[in-house]
Amino acid sequence: GNTALGYFGLFGNTTGSYNVALGYRAARFHADGTTALTDAENSIYIGGDVRGKDNSDSNSIVIGYNAIGMGANTAVWGNTSILNHYFSGNINEVPPKT
């Protein structure tokens, strides 16, 4: 199943499953802003007008107003207006590259 909270959240989703969308029109469209996101799977979309890259989205995380996903197995924080990201502590890669 899918979970959507917000007007038109996951509105075009017809076959995708295990997604979460929070916000106005969250995960309604592809990156182009007009084509319905119908088949995303196992993904999280948080924020107004958050969009997936396309219907190959799987295991995607997209957070922030008007943020646009980069495709399967990626995470995006913020839209193109965000200039800096701040994190406390270490950022680790799992598993680490050797």
Structural commentary:
With 98 residues, the protein is mainly β. The chain has strands at residues 3-5, 20-22, 44-46, 61-63, 75-77. The protein has one domain (1-88). The chain has no helices and 5 strands.
- By secondary-structure content and strand pairing, the structural class works out as mainly beta
What percent of the residues sit in helical stretches (DSSP H or I)? under 10%
Q: Could you list the spans in which at least 5 consecutive residues all have pLDDT below 50? A: none
Q: What separation lies between the terminal Cα atoms?
A: 38 Å
Organism: Candidatus Nomurabacteria bacterium GW2011_GWE1_35_16
InterPro entries: Serralysin-like_metalloprot_C
Protein name: Trimeric autotransporter adhesin YadA-like head domain-containing protein
Write the layout of secondary structure elements.
Layout: E1 3-5, E2 20-22, E3 44-46, E4 61-63, E5 75-77
Parallel strand pairs: 1-2, 2-3, 3-4, 4-5
Task: Write a brief structural summary.
The protein has 98 residues and is an all-beta fold. Helix content is 0%, strand content 15%. The model has no long low-confidence stretch (mean pLDDT 93).
What distinguishing features does this structure have?
98 residues; five-stranded parallel beta sheet; mainly beta; globular
